[in-house]
Inverse folding.
């Protein structure tokens, strides 16, 4: 068993009086792909934002590489090596593709910038062609690629991907998932993936969790979850 | 024609000063969506610090061009630092704790800070206008016409040249910072999506502080130039100049940096031409009628962006 890179213990997050997370226990081992599936509004993105420090946990603790990050400001957490491609992509619309990547590289050593940019453009050649174009003028799929590329520019130790397949054509979804697999296998990148597209995500995952209403209800390996009838019924029927 | 040309020169000079102040309004609005009503008073503080420094150093303009210029640069640096310290403190004490509160809260706080600054300067420095003999004198005649009514000379004073050139240099430096440097990128990122910027490792609070510092530094330069141009200042000059610069920012498109400069020039021209061809007494009315008209008919301003973005 590899060591645990990220662990959440009893994490509770609120929006005002509404409790979005009701005590999350979860581990992400180093070098693995961990998937969290669940329906809309289950609290998946809230967990992502809580890990990144953009949302505060009211109770519980989050540990990254042995360090307590529960109360750390978001920009410090980014410097520790957690990088997120968030829900809704959040590309800077009035910055060029290249500038968006430069923003992604905020926490990484400038000497890697050219090399990393080249890697992102090889991964997503369309971004290379559009490097001078403003982010807001890209299509949804291109923006998604840019969001992932931007997150990778940080040279993260843990990559958080929030619904990278949302609203994309199946062929692009396939491409994005194969990029994730490749990053994990070749570079040993640890990935925490939130998905509604459960079939692809579970196939990819070493470890998987299911979230319902702010609670983790089921966990297991990706294969185990794929085989469970209740998972098939709730998340896979008709989705593929 | 000669008269028109003279007014054009005067208008552009005044407009440059408004433009420099307007940048502070538009930058702060761009990044945190509030109008810093105390900004005009930070401009006034910049002017006052300049007066104090000029008197302390005993600068009278009698010591030759080079010495005078050097002294003025020293004075403006002091004014920039102190005005920046004021604006930084204001943001820290009066605006940051209210971030995330209802939209009107920081606005009300800003009006409060405006009064605080005015009263502070009034109490500390007295309420009477502070005049000083002209430090930068001289100029050139660029056109002369003699007719039966006498002669009319179009003058370009050295002070006007200094104001316009300084503004151009500052704008060039400022534009380069915003478009080319990582600081400028962080600034724009926070303006477009603050939360995302923080996820990428940008210290948003620090970036906002720097915005206030830059805005104040530009306003302080304007403060010194305004004082040298008119030869007098008081604790209340920030109010009118501030509101006019704010009008300039809205006219140019609030949030747009080139818009702020353009708006400043236009307001300067409107005010000057109105005074020249109509009535001096109503020049402020003309400027503010412009504000009302822009808000009603063109709320985006000239260079403001319409909010059409793909999500």
């Amino acid at each position: 068993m590899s060591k645990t890179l990220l662990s959440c213990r009893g994490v509770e997050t609120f929006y005002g009086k509404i409790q979005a997370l009701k005590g999350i226990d979860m581990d992400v081992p180093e070098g693995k792909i961990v998937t969290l599936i669940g329906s809309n509004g289950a609290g998946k993105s809230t967990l992502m934002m809580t890990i990144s420090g953009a949302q505060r946990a009211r109770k519980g603790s989050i540990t990254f590489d042995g360090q307590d990050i529960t109360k750390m400001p978001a920009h410090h957490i980014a410097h520790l090596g957690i990088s997120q491609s968030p829900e809704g992509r959040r590309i800077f619309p009035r910055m060029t593709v290249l500038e968006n990547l430069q923003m992604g590289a905020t926490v990484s050593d400038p000497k890697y910038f050219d090399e990393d940019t080249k890697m992102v453009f090889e991964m997503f050649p369309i971004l290379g062609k559009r490097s001078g174009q403003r982010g807001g003028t890209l299509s949804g799929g291109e923006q998604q690629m840019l969001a992932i590329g931007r997150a990778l520019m940080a040279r993260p130790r843990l990559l958080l991907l929030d619904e990278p397949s949302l609203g994309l054509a199946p062929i692009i979804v396939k491409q994005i998932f194969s990029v994730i697999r490749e990053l994990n296998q070749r570079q040993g990148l640890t990935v925490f993936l939130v998905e509604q597209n459960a079939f692809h995500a579970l196939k990819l995952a070493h470890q998987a969790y299911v979230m319902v209403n702010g609670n983790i209800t089921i966990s297991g390996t990706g294969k185990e979850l794929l085989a469970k009838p209740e998972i098939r019924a709730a998340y896979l029927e008709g989705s593929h | 024609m000669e008269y028109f040309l003279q007014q054009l020169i005067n208008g552009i000079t005044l407009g440059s000063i408004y433009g420099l102040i307007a940048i502070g309004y538009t930058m702060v609005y761009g990044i945190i969506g509030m109008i810093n009503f105390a900004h005009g008073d930070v401009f006034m503080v910049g002017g006052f610090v300049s007066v104090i420094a000029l008197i302390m150093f005993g600068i009278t303009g009698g010591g030759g061009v080079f010495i005078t210029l050097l002294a003025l640069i020293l004075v403006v640096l002091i004014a920039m630092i102190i005005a920046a310290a004021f604006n930084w403190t204001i943001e820290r004490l009066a605006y940051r704790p209210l971030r995330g509160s209802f939209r009107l809260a920081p606005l009300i706080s800003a009006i409060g800070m405006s009064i605080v600054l005015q009263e502070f300067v009034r109490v500390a420095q007295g309420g009477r206008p502070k005049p000083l003999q002209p430090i930068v004198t001289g100029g050139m005649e660029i056109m002369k016409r003699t007719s039966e009514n006498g002669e009319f000379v179009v003058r370009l004073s050295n002070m006007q040249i200094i104001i316009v050139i300084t503004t151009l240099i500052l704008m060039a430096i400022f534009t380069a910072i915003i478009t080319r440097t990582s600081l400028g990128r962080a600034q724009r990122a926070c303006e477009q999506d603050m939360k995302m910027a923080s996820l990428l490792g940008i210290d948003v609070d620090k970036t906002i502080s720097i915005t206030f510092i830059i805005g104040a530094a530009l306003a302080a330069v304007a403060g010194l130039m305004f004082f040298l141009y008119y030869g007098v200042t008081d604790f209340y000059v920030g109010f009118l100049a501030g509101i006019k610069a704010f009008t300039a920012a809205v006219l140019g498109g609030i949030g747009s940096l080139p818009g702020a400069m353009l708006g400043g020039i236009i307001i300067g021209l409107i005010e000057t031409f109105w005074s020249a061809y109509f009535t001096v007494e109503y020049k402020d009315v003309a400027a503010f009628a412009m504000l009302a008209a822009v808000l009603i008919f063109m709320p985006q301003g000239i260079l403001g962006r319409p909010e059409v973005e793909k999500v």
